[in-house]
Amino acid sequence: ADAPETIFVERRDRVGLITLHRPKSLNALNRQLAREVLEALKAFDADDNVGAIVITGSARAFAAGADIEEMANLTFAEFYCDDIFAPWDELRSVSKPIIAAVGGYALGGGCELALMCDFIIAAEDAQFGQPEIKLGILPGIGGSQRLAKAVGKAVAMDLILTGRTIDVHEAKAVGMVARVVPSNELLQTALEAAHTIAGYNCPAVRMAKEAVNVAFEASLTEGMRHERRLFQAAFATEGQKEGMHAFIAKRAPVFRHR
Ligand code: CO8
């Protein structure tokens, strides 16, 4: 495959790092960027040397939304027949945890991308919003669904219908954001969290992510059943034996990766 042009892709220890890089448009999410991000995510998901993934942007913007210039003249038929947002749906199939490290603007599709990740660590200067309504449209890669599930109806309706932007403290208060950190510590904090995750029993990490995600799709009964089967399955992994025997022996566990 050609080297990506809209992102930087690197591995730091056992963490895969994707940095969105379209500085002239505040990381607007165009087709090429969508394709390149998804290719990088799939490669990390398949790479035994990677245990968790971080997606970040620049200090000024995580991403300011879908690329408005690219979309402006599209017709319904063009959009319908060539669903340019379809690649983003594939992010759901990534089984390793993905952390969004958000500084600056996370607007429209940028806010939706952050919400698609497993959790968000945000800098003090991060701003979140779904301003699509101001452009005569609405969220298009899951914002209406994920925001409603993440923060409830009242706040989702407020943000999506007024298009107002919220600061990081409001985003934290409503539950969109897991942690708020000083801007100069953002990437380091996200990498450390990913590094911690990448050090655990790999199948258990994937099972835990899968189990939490079931909570958004299934009834409590179904979700409990799913969790219990995964919990039982964890006892078929070497990491479970290592983790428990290490505890009993009062030593640190060493998880083999695979
Ligand atoms: N698309 C294209 N270009 C953009 C975008 C964007 N979303 N956002 C910013 N840019 C460009 C600007 O046009 C400008 O370019 P230039 O220097 O050539 O004039 C450059 O980035 C810098 O932007 P500003 O000069 O506007 O910088 P400010 O600091 O004055 O303002 C803002 C920053 C407030 C972030 C402002 O740029 C802004 O309001 N941007 C648009 C935000 C927005 O409306 N986002 C929603 C887009 S629609 C959407 O996301 C639909 C979601 C559906 C699914 C998405 C799938 C990918």
TrEMBL record:
Enzyme class per UniProt: lyase
GO MF annotations, alphabetized: enoyl-CoA hydratase activity
UniProtKB keywords: Lyase
Pfam families for the chain: ECH_1
Superkingdom, taxonomy of origin: Bacteria
PANTHER family from the UniProt entry: ENOYL-COA HYDRATASE, MITOCHONDRIAL, ENOYL-COA HYDRATASE-RELATED
Family: Belongs to the enoyl-CoA hydratase/isomerase family.
UniProt name for this protein: Enoyl-CoA hydratase
